[in-house]
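Q: How do we represent a protein-ligand complex in a form that can be generated token by token?
A: Start from the inputs.
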Amino acid sequence: MITVIKNGTVVTASETTRADVVIEDGKVSQIAAKAHVHPPGTSAGGQPSDDIETIDATGKYVMPGGIDAHTHLDMPFGGATSADDFESGTIAAAFGGTTSIVDFAIQYRGQGLRQAFETWLTKAEGKAAIDYGLHMIMTETSPSLLDEMDGMVREGVTSFKLFMAYPGVFMLDDASIFKAMLRARDNGGLICMHAENGGAIDELVRRALAAKNVDPKWHGLTRPSRLEGEATGRAIALAEVAGVPVYIVHLSAAEALEAVAEARDRGVPVLAETCPQYLFCSYEEHLAAPGFEGAKYVCSPPLREKWHQDHLWRGLARNDLQVVSTDHCPFCMAQKELGKGDFSKIPNGMPGIETRMYLLWEGVRAGWITPNRFVEITATAPARIFGMFPRKGTIAIGSDADIVIWDPEREVVLSHKTLHMKVDYNPFEGRTVRGGPSVVLSRGDVVVQGGKFLGKPGRGQFLRRNTRALG
Ligand code: URP
Ligand code: ZN
Ligand code: ZN
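Then emit the structure tokens for the protein with N-(aminocarbonyl)-beta-alanine bound:
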């Protein structure tokens, strides 16, 4: 089967060109001003055939499908399990123009990495509708687990998330973090860090609850941005001494960005992502909303005061932040209600796997980022950083034909009633955005078109990722 995307404007991280894109066997085979195709077994002048499908992209952008490098599907957390599994989550992702995700397998205390890997493969297999990779969350760094890291890298699980927060659940002390960093230096793995000072936060939470401060806004008030800045600086210092790059996940605060920018200015290999919720939502407008409304916005790090947003947009524009991923970790309101009367029991996380590209395009429309930068932060940079480039994250001869045909005129009202995530609210409920996917292809298969899902659960393949390529 040959597919030709005709008359579109092809946008990659580095170029914008009017070109046709030809897809054969799931891969891009030609990018040309006027594509010449002939069905298998005929001459170059052969007649149009049923074996050739043409998609007209006049007036539209033809861009690499998005890569969401931070999702939590079917994840047990805080007494609940995230509401999207690999089927509903990846279908929702596809509707939003995302064609690959990297989710997190969790090594719980007392378990091995392989056990965690197999558990998460089982969750994904037969369900995922788009391709998926896995990071590994490590909650211990015993000698045998450090040895297992090498095996995981060989299996294509080449990044490891460590936590400086959530004492007693995920948090590692500095020595344990440092050991994992030293091992990553030797095996080429990438350490991804949740950077918040968990010990200090726990004490603030204890004091808030003792003073009967129980509303959702206290989630924010007990996790000050300074403690994210401190942990980010500490993570960078440990990585610097270990001689290994570090990737800061879900960066939310100006103080943390300052630590990243300072290190990068000195030539230290530090990378960081932020998420749409930190670019578009704030403590005062959302988390501190009256009653229990703020529970919808409880995630960690918490939403910050609005002034942080300008810093984050600037960080994206000047490449101190390289990636926007979602940290998609949705909980329905009944699950959030576990924390009614005690904010510390509200399951942490927000939905976003489907809305990332729509929201980021708002940044393009506002002139804060160019279309090329949009492609870079939603697809190309995550592909490079997490060892998927050039198979994923670009439109080039030989790349997987993971493509989103983007209609800049399409108007969409974001609502949980019409989006496809399995969660009964949306943080952006009622917001009208302009620009969205009209056709989405995954390895050449049309998976979304005309507002319909045309793919199949289970067609997604596990991505064996290479080690980091940070250039
Ligand atoms: O609130 C969040 N971020 N939930 C998901 C877990 C994590 O720390 O990424
Ligand atoms: Zn985290
Ligand atoms: Zn996360």
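The mean pLDDT is 96. The radius of gyration is 22 Å.
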